[in-house]
Design brief:
The complex is a heterodimer of chains A (225) and B (221). Chain A is an all-alpha fold and 225 residues long. In chain A, 79% of the residues lie in helices and 0% in strands. The termini of chain B are far apart. The chains are: A mainly alpha (225), B mainly alpha (221).
């Protein structure tokens, strides 16, 4: 392989733009936390509708989950960017649009996680609890939920890690998170290799411990019935 | 609010080409990442000891870095490092394979480890070699058990090809963006793209579920 004669690397560009990169990282975390804060309660709601609601509502909830689980997130982001302002009549900021798109997507995944977690507890357990004189709500709260939680939490944790990475996709609508900021600095300074490598390394440094933590959680909370 | 879906009819060939590239890129990168994942998993499990750490490091790193970052790096930075130029399609194929092979490797490993160790010991006691055990005892059962996970990996692959639009691969997402931009009718175009992606992805998820139910008994032991 031939060495490129003109290639001189200048890594100081990364340090020079540290403030922008730190702000971008903060936005990435903010987006992840805010999306989860929305998508967990909404996911519980949708799962509840799918399991216990009136039949047409159940079908609607199922349709929503299936639709969003079968769409590329980047398309949802574009769609939200163009359609939400028209639908709501509001001029939404890129950040709010990105948050909406991510929430729509993650809510569908979370709903499926909650539904699967509740369904994974054998039917006989509810029947046994009710035979002991518990009401349905009591059986759900005291028998199903505590067991289901051990199955749900590890899945939620890996959804978190996926979400953390997926926030990079809202860079296409100019949300100033880590990926967008890095690519913007690249465009301004023409330091392509340096900035793109810095972006990858930053995501790695942030994401690696989270992925490892999820592995540990999954090992620890493993349920055998 | 008025919608005019004539824009779809006017550009159907352009969009159909996008669908074709999406399918092509999904099929090829699905295949290459499966093959690479199988090799990496086998190396991790049965390869020389010194290879284990790099394999695990690679797999965990890919789980930590967004696909977008991998694709952008492959297209813009890799040519600088390697001194080669490549088409967006090639870059997307390389990037997607590097990323998805890590997930495929994890699926293969979990599948192989799900077969009870007693079976390996029994086969070794019968005089089979390690390679024979893997080929004739472990893989036939493990592959059936891996099917659902491979199905969801395939649907992840199709979804991830949409991210290749960022590096200008003319797949469905990119083509839709272009039509939306030229026609000033993003709502119609993107809504139609939603329909197309759903029609591609839903049968994959459902088809794999069906197939698995039919062959699940083959993986029992």
């Amino acid at each position: 392989m031939q060495a490129l004669p003109a290639m001189t690397l200048d890594w100081s560009v990364v340090w020079q733009h540290r403030d922008a990169l730190i702000a971008g990282t903060a936005t990435t975390f903010l987006l992840t936390i805010a999306t989860m804060a929305i998508a967990v309660p909404c996911g519980i709601l949708v799962a509840g509708l799918r399991l216990y609601a009136w039949r047409p509502v159940r079908a609607l909830a199922t349709g929503y989950v299936e639709l969003f689980r079968n769409l590329p997130l980047i398309l949802v982001v574009y769609w939200a960017f163009y359609v939400l302002p028209i639908l709501t009549g509001l001029g939404l900021s890129p950040l709010a649009t990105g948050l909406a798109a991510l929430s729509l997507n993650v809510t569908a995944y979370n709903a499926e996680t909650f539904r699967a977690g509740i369904n994974s507890i054998r039917r006989g357990q509810v029947e046994a609890a009710m035979a002991l004189g518990m009401t349905r709500a009591q059986a759900l709260r005291r028998v199903i939920v505590p067991q289901a939680l051990r199955r749900i939490l590890p899945v939620l944790a890996s959804t978190w890690v996926s979400l953390f990475k997926d926030t990079s996709l809202v860079s296409v609508i100019a949300v100033t998170e880590l990926a967008y900021v890095s690519m913007q600095v690249r465009a301004q300074t023409f330091r392509v290799l340096e900035m793109l490598t810095a972006m990858a390394v930053l995501y790695w440094l942030l994401g690696y411990p989270q992925a490892k933590l999820v592995d540990w959680m999954q090992r620890r909370m493993k349920v055998t019935e | 609010m008025e919608f005019d879906f004539a824009v779809i009819g006017d550009n159907w060939q352009f969009l159909a080409y996008g669908v074709w590239i999406t399918i092509l890129l999904s099929a090829v990168s699905g295949f290459t990442s499966l093959a690479a994942g199988l090799v990496i998993a086998l190396l991790r499990l049965y390869g020389p000891g010194w290879l284990r750490v790099p394999c695990v490091l690679y797999i965990d790193s890919m789980r930590a870095i967004p696909v977008l970052v991998v694709l952008v790096w492959t297209f813009f930075a890799l040519p600088i490092v390697a001194g080669v130029t490549m088409s967006p399609f090639t870059a997307a194929l390389i990037g997607l394979t590097v990323h998805l092979a890590a997930y495929a490797a994890e699926i293969v490993r979990a599948g192989i480890e799900s077969v009870r160790p007693g079976q390996t010991r029994a086969a070794l006691a019968l005089g089979m070699s390690r390679a024979q055990v893997v080929r004739r005892i472990l893989l036939p059962q493990a592959i059936v058990r891996m099917l659902p996970a491979f199905g969801s990996l395939l649907s992840v692959t199709i979804k991830d090809t949409a991210i290749a639009s960022v590096i200008a691969v003319p797949e469905l997402m990119r083509q839709s963006e272009t039509v939306a931009g030229q026609s000033f009718q993003p709502i119609e175009v993107f809504s139609f793209a939603i329909l197309l992606y759903f029609l591609m992805l839903f049968p994959v998820t459902r088809g794999v579920d069906r197939l698995y139910r039919r062959v699940a008994h083959l993986g029992r032991s």
